């Protein structure tokens, strides 16, 4: 299996970390009855639960692109320096993003997000060019 597909497989761990943090903090703030229910009424999240929720939503913005790029590279049999470094950068920066967002670190968090996007761009260039 290529590095890109290996990282894609392991990226599911990042997804579950996001989901676990978001649901755990939501349950802590609003209770298990609310979390298990239909959540028809909107309730205010605490600071950490809100950050975990927004971090998950942010991950959901770029994760589909990573999945597509890794799969296209794998299906096309493309694995080169750009796709490998890009996939590695994406995973590394997405891992770093979680604690920075939860701790409320400004600017550096944005740079880390940009780094993850550059990783996606590298993958794209490695596939297309």
Automatic annotation (TrEMBL):
InterPro entries: MAPEG-like_dom_sf, Membr-assoc_MAPEG
GO cellular component: membrane
TM spans (from-to): 7-25, 62-78, 85-104, 110-128
Source species, domain of life: Bacteria
Keywords: Membrane, Transmembrane, Transmembrane helix
Subcellular location: Membrane
Name of the featured protein: Uncharacterized conserved protein, MAPEG superfamily
Source organism of this protein record: Pelagibacterium luteolum
Taxonomic lineage of the native organism: Bacteria, Pseudomonadati, Pseudomonadota, Alphaproteobacteria, Hyphomicrobiales
């Amino acid at each position: 299996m290529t590095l890109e597909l290996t990282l894609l497989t392991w990226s599911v761990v990042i997804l579950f970390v996001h989901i676990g943090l978001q649901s755990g903090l939501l349950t802590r703030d609003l209770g298990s009855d609310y979390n298990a229910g239909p959540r028809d009424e909107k309730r205010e999240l605490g600071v950490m639960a809100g950050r975990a929720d927004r971090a998950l939503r942010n991950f959901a913005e770029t994760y589909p692109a990573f999945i597509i790029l890794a799969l296209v590279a794998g299906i096309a049999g493309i694995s080169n320096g750009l796709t490998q470094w890009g996939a590695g950068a994406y995973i590394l920066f997405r891992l770093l993003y979680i604690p920075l967002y939860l701790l409320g670190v400004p600017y550096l968090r944005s740079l880390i997000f940009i780094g993850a996007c550059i990783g996606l761009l590298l993958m794209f260039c490695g596939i297309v060019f």
